[in-house]
């Protein structure tokens, strides 16, 4: 089969440290397992990218023939990146503001992908899929709502996944909001700390490692008929 993958760093697979000790993409994740099974994979995922960008990167490839299109969703708040995160610095002042913005940006991303009029199989990466929002778009298939929750039986994905926007959260946020963000951040960081989690997320603690991606592949392989 011919498969197209789009997303952010999760779309590129596992991350860790190369032989020189430099942080690097150390395993191609789903792409590698698919290619090992004889499938042809085009991967337009960009590390550090956002969801609208994942859609933009995919669109030029739609003129080509693909049997399956896969999107791995990033943290929705990354879609504020084109505005340099100004709302977080100036307009947002509570955890609920961030939640509402995340959900609004997620809805816009789903609309953008749905408007391609292609069947797109979606996996929740840094951003967990919102099944209620996605239900408005029949061509978006929720293949894996949350990769972390699929791989780890006892894990609950954070409501907000901390990307670089977290460094802009400052005194404009009240103590209760900071505490809620810390709950999410500790849960996120536990991927690289708790021993049973590290088995699938070591060494960087932010992405599945080769073992983690193998779990994901074994789950989606029969669902996609690979």
Protein architecture, described:
The protein has a single domain (2-224), classed as Rossmann fold, CATH 3.40.50. The longest helix is centred in the middle third of the chain and has 20 residues, at 95-114. The chain is globular, with a radius of gyration of 17 Å. The protein is built from ten helices and seven strands. The strands form two sheets. A five-stranded parallel sheet has the order 4-1-5-6-7. It is 40% helix and 15% strand. The protein is of the alpha/beta class and 226 residues long.
Distance between the termini: 8 Å
Characterize the biggest β-sheet.
Answer: 5 strands, parallel
Poorly predicted spans? none
Radius of gyration, Cα only, in angstroms? 17 Å
Level-2 CATH architecture = 3-Layer(aba) Sandwich
Please trace the helix and strand order, writing H or E for each element: EHEEHEHEHHEHEHHHH
Count of the separate structural domains: 1
Give the secondary structure arrangement, pairings included:
Blueprint: E1 2-6, H1 9-12, E2 14-17, E3 23-27, H2 30-36, E4 40-43, H3 51-58, E5 68-73, H4 86-90, H5 95-114, E6 120-124, H6 131-134, E7 140-144, H7 147-151, H8 175-189, H9 195-201, H10 210-224
Parallel strand pairs: 1-4, 1-5, 5-6, 6-7
Antiparallel strand pairs: 2-3
Concise overview:
The protein is of the alpha/beta class. It contains ten helices and seven strands. It has a single domain, classed as 3-Layer(aba) Sandwich (Rossmann fold).
Features:
226 residues; alpha/beta; Rossmann fold; 10 helices; 7 strands; 40% helix
């Amino acid at each position: 089969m011919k498969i197209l993958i789009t997303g952010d760093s999760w779309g590129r697979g596992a991350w860790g440290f190369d032989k020189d000790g430099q942080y690097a993409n150390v395993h191609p994740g789903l792409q590698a397992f698919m290619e090992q099974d004889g499938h042809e994979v085009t991967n337009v995922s960009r590390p550090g990218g956002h969801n609208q960008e994942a859609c933009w990167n995919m669109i030029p490839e739609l003129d080509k023939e693909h049997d399956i299109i896969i999107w791995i969703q990033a943290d929705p708040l990354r879609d504020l990146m084109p505005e340099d995160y100004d709302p977080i610095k100036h307009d947002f002042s509570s955890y609920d503001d961030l939640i509402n913005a995340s959900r609004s940006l997620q809805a816009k991303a789903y609309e953008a992908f749905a408007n391609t009029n292609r069947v797109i199989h979606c996996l929740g990466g840094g951003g967990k899929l919102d099944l209620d929002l996605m239900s408005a778009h029949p061509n978006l298939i929720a293949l894996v709502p949350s990769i972390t929750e699929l791989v780890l039986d006892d894990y609950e994905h954070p409501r907000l996944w901390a990307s670089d926007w977290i460094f802009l959260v400052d005194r404009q946020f009240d103590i209760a909001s900071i505490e809620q963000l810390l709950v999410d951040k500790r849960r996120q960081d536990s991927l690289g700390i708790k021993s049973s989690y590290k088995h699938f997320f070591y060494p960087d603690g932010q992405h599945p490692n080769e073992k983690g991606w193998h779990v994901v592949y074994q789950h989606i392989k029969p669902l996609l008929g690979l």
